[in-house]
From TrEMBL:
This is Cytochrome P450. Its cofactor is heme. InterPro entries: Cyt_P450, Cyt_P450_CS, Cyt_P450_sf, Cytochrome_P450_monoxygenase. PANTHER family: CYTOCHROME P450 (PTHR24305).
Length: 105
């Protein structure tokens, strides 16, 4: 089955299958959705670029943290966060303000 057919299947994702709704992954029963996320396909015909994509993400994040100093705005309060489960916290509103400045070598 193609990724397009799987990702827009209303039987799996519901009536809003075509909507960008990342909150569906935050539901208590969302673990069953992992098997239906086939961005890089699965099995013998899996995309060879998956490892390259993950490597590029790691390199981009490493460069971001190596080249820039990131500082959180000190105005956040505990009321700005919401605990979803034992491992996940959500930010209310637009999230924290992050100040970014280039590092001097």
């Amino acid at each position: 089955m193609s990724a397009h057919s799987m990702h827009f299947n209303r039987d799996i994702w519901g009536a809003n299958a075509r909507d960008f709704a990342p909150e569906r992954w935050l539901q208590p029963d969302a673990s069953h959705l992992e098997g239906y996320l086939v961005s890089f396909s699965k099995g013998a015909r899996m995309c060879l670029g998956i490892n390259l994509a993950y490597s590029e993400i790691r390199i981009a994040l490493a460069n971001l943290f190596r080249r820039f100093d990131l500082k959180l705005d000190g105005n956040m309060t505990p009321e700005d966060t919401e605990r979803l489960d034992c491992f996940t916290t959500s930010l209310r509103g637009s999230g924290p303000m992050v100040y970014c400045s280039a590092r001097r070598e």
